[in-house]
Amino acid sequence: MPVMTAAPLAVSDEQRQALERMARSSTLPHRKVVQAKALLLAADGVGTNEVARRCGTTNESVRAWRRRFEAEGVEGVGRIAAGRGRKSWLPEGTVAEVVRITLEETPDDTSTHWTTRSLAERMGIGKDSVARIWRDHKLKPWRVETFKLSNDPRFEEKLVDVVGL
Prior knowledge:
Elements: H1 13-24, H2 30-43, H3 48-55, H4 59-72, H5 94-104, H6 116-123, H7 127-136, H8 155-163
């Protein structure tokens, strides 16, 4: 019985150049670099089993990468399919509530702002989850941005002297 091998992957010159850039990159995600290397091997006529062995992955992954490349081109390389990846374990609405409480409320213990631990205790989630939510929403409750006016009776006179310099 003859061994079935996939035909070499059809790649244009522009696509090959883009894949070679990706395969050499030290800044792109690892997933994208490995897929680019695998697709280049497939374009050179290397069999699916050998591509999988050289790239340290499975035959099914190589076949999926080939199909995606044929359908989407270079833009599909390294893309994570919809519905894949880790799902949030936080209940629905928790993120919005953490943001709302951070912005609108103060802690019950007369503190000036929330800490990750105090808000996590109130919400019943982990401190790292609170920190991640704050980071994602660019919240820094410990930073207070206010302008404080002086109650010095000669403030205006001093201000004019300083600004007049």
